[in-house]
Design goal:
- The protein is of the alpha+beta class.
- It has 23 helices and 19 strands.
- It has 4 domains: 219 residues, Alpha-Beta Plaits; 78 residues, MutS, DNA mismatch repair protein, domain I (3-Layer(aba) Sandwich), CATH 3.40.1170.60; 122 residues, Dna Ligase, domain 1 (2-Layer Sandwich); 215 residues, no CATH class.
- Strands 7-8-1-10-11-9 form a 6-stranded mixed β-sheet. Strands 12-15-13-14-16 form a 5-stranded antiparallel β-sheet.
- It binds 2'-deoxycytidine-5'-triphosphate.
- 2'-deoxycytidine-5'-triphosphate binds next to strand 1, helix 1 and strand 3.
- It catalyses: DNA(n) + a 2'-deoxyribonucleoside 5'-triphosphate = DNA(n+1) + diphosphate.
Length: 665
């Protein structure tokens, strides 16, 4: 079966840049006296001196390894300095490392498309920069090639008796070389410069691989460490892969790599060359088969994504050996901690990057006390994410219960009864499906629209779904403290929603508590009645009544059928016909244009959808806006009366700040 194959004669210039012993460098920058000393960073756990999570290069010379415990490291290297990873809420607090990683990313992203692949590594697409350099100032026309670039390791370079440095210089200056090699030479000069800037501005060293695709660049960046770079010309690829153990290849470290070894007798990537694409497809499926066929030839068409921010946020903790959790209350305690951290990070992301996450996922690892042979995995579960610590905690616990029910089969809800049946050795919560909030007036609509989606699951009836399996490079419980930049929580499905109007009012309450008196009038009674009539259950009605005192402007925004946009001199009513299978809401976000009439677009999918109503901007009592802080008022007014839009209105930022600063949002 043919599968689209990327061009083997790839002429892109891709770099993979990896920080050297990253946590150690961050600690050494904090405490400069540690520089030059054998150093390692250990987990807070005090058992046998804690587990090593990062080992400096000076300590590696003594044989210290990441798999060791502190006491063991002391034995092989008595002078080693063990630095504790910062702790918050009884678990590793990686904020300082994340921030240090961001500093580096902001420098590395200066020369081309940049994808932050993990807490300490990025991919860069330098094709354009290299082409420009080749056209305008090729290596042979430069005053000199930097020392850092001349220290590059160029794979497959023939030394011919000359010094390596001279050969590398000759390679850089070879004006009649293959165009692709010339591009790589330019890429190597650019990367050397970037690494130098990183060192100058942050004091961190990093290593790099420069090649024609991501796979080769990643392989190369680990070949010469620390503080070095390796170039992979096309002509060297075959030889490189010929002897490369399959397990060294990204994505072949696990079961697939083992199957290649055991079932096909493939030990090196080059060994794969003997199998036809059809044979590999037959054995491993069409996509994996083709992927294996491609990597055997050094082919990888994966693009460098334009992404400086993580794709998801995760917070997790392992509970090895006797620390395993065996009661619901202990699970709940830890879930609460993890959710609190996750919630903080989400609010930080909202504040700093104007992004919101839409899916909450719970992963756990467990074993059964009465059936230790069982290989059954604890199923990961996900649901729409509601903002607010308490809501995330509540939903995470429900996800846990859903997973546990499935894991142990018949499940007794009462904690006493399920005691001694299972043990949890790892827990993590992650937030994914992160989307940006567009700036300006548009953001108001989008923001509330998204908030509707993320915040309206009923607390008693959370709809959970199995989460997609983790990617090999994603978050895993053995390493739960890692931030997640790759697609580890690939929730391929949106959870069907159980949104109700009653729940929206709950959001309103969260948004603006403490200002209830006198606000009923701000949403005209007729509209309140109308909304009330649309509520099906008594419970919903009661809740709605209770919520009457909430700020009407918020209710207005949260009313799923009440989004109005001034538009080109006509009246239009559009109404969502139903939720898509993916659970996405129809979006009719139109930029307001100065005009006289109103277009109404209903957004939402609940019980009152069929009774959509128009809401005209001139029906809004102006006093309603007074509830809001001045900068929010300005933005909302500008939306309602675009012709009066003040030049000074700061687009998009105030509204995000206002809501993100609400702890109970
Ligand atoms: N890390 C961790 N737990 C792990 C692996 C890594 O906490 N099991 C942290 C500590 C590392 C950082 O992530 O400093 C980056 O991991 P790397 O695998 O890139 O290793 P280092 O940067 O420490 O060393 P190297 O120079 O070999 O890349």
């Amino acid at each position: 079966m043919p599968v689209a194959r990327p061009e083997p004669s790839d002429s892109r210039v891709i770099a993979h840049i990896d920080m050297d012993c990253f946590y150690v460098q961050v600690e050494q920058r904090k405490q400069p006296t540690l520089r030059g000393h054998p150093t390692a960073v250990v987990q807070y756990n005090s058992w046998k001196g804690g587990g090593l999570i990062a080992v400096g290069y000076e300590a590696r010379k003594f044989g210290v390894k990441r798999s060791m415990r502190g006491d063991e490291a002391k034995k092989v290297c008595p002078d080693i300095q063990l630095v504790q990873v910062p702790v918050a809420r009884g678990k590793a607090d990686l904020g300082v490392y994340r921030n240090a990683g961001s500093e580096v990313v902001s420098i590395l992203s200066r020369k081309g498309r940049c994808e932050r692949a993990s807490i300490d590594e990025v991919y860069l697409d330098l094709t354009e920069a290299a082409e420009t350099m080749l056209a305008e100032s090729p290596p042979e026309r430069l005053d000199g090639i930097s020392e850092e670039a001349l220290k590059s390791h160029v794979l497959g370079l023939h030394l011919d008796g000359a010094s390596t440095r001279d050969c590398v210089r000759a390679w850089f200056l070879m004006s009649d070389a293959d165009h692709r090699d010339r591009l790589l030479a330019c890429g190597a000069i650019i990367v050397a410069e970037l690494r130098h800037e990183v060192l100058k501005e942050t004091e961190f060293t990093c290593s790099a691989g420069i090649a024609h695709n991501k796979m080769l660049a990643k392989l190369a960046s680990g070949m010469n460490k620390p503080a070095q770079q390796t170039v992979v010309p096309l002509s060297s690829v075959e030889k490189l892969l010929e002897s490369l153990p399959v397990k060294k290849m990204k994505q072949l470290g696990g079961k697939l790599g083992t199957s290649l070894q055991v079932d096909l007798g493939v030990n090196t990537v080059g060994d794969l060359l003997q199998f036809s694409e059809e044979k590999l497809q037959e054995r491993y499926g069409i996509n994996t088969g083709t992927w294996l066929w491609n990597i055997a030839r050094g082919i990888c068409g994966e693009e460098v994504e334009d992404r400086l921010l993580p794709k998801s946020h995760g917070s997790g903790k392992t509970f090895p050996g006797p620390q395993a959790l065996k009661t619901i209350s202990s699970v709940q305690k830890w879930l609460n901690e993890l959710c609190e951290e996750l919630s903080e990070r989400l609010l930080c992301d909202l504040e700093e990057n104007k992004r919101i996450a839409r899916t909450l996922t719970l992963h756990a690892s467990a074993y059964k006390l009465n059936d230790s042979e069982s290989l059954k995995k604890f199923p990961s579960k996900s649901c729409p994410l509601r903002y607010g610590i308490a809501k995330i905690q509540e939903d995470a616990l429900k996800l846990f219960h859903a997973g546990l029910r499935e894991y142990i089969g018949i499940y007794h809800v009462r904690s006493k009864e399920c005691k001694h049946e299972w043990a949890i050795t790892g827990l993590s919560v992650s937030a994914s499906k992160i989307v940006g909030i567009p700036s300006g007036t548009h953001s108001i609509m989008k923001y509330f629209h998204n908030l509707n989606q993320t915040s309206t699951t009923t607390s008693n009836d959370i709809c959970t779904q199995d989460a997609a399996p983790l990617s090999p490079s994603g978050l895993h419980l053995a390493d739960p403290q890692m931030d997640t930049y790759e697609d580890e929580a690939r929730t391929r499905h949106e959870t069907p929603s159980l949104y109700t109007v009653a729940d929206e009012t709950e959001v309103c309450k969260g948004l603006k508590s403490g200002s209830e008196s006198g606000l009923v009038s701000e949403l005209t009674q007729s509209k309140m009645d109308f909304l009330g009539a649309g509520l099906k259950s008594e419970k919903q009605k009661k809740k709605f009544e209770k919520e009457k005192g909430n700020p009407s402007i918020l209710r207005f925004f949260h009313s799923p059928d009440a989004f109005s946009f001034p538009e080109h001199g006509r009246v239009k009513t559009c109404q969502e016909s139903g939720a898509s299978s993916s659970g996405d809401l129809l979006q009719e976000n139109k930029q307001p244009i100065a005009g006289t009439s109103i277009s109404t677009c209903s957004l939402g999918r609940n019980d009152i959808r069929n009774d959509a109503w128009s809401y005209k901007s001139d029906e809004i009592d102006p006093t309603v806006l007074n509830e809001l802080p001045p900068e929010i008022q300005a933005e909302v007014r500008a939306w309602l009366h675009p012709e009066k839009r003040a030049k000074s209105v700061k687009r998009g930022s105030s509204i995000v700040h206002y809501f993100s600063s609400r702890a109970d949002l």
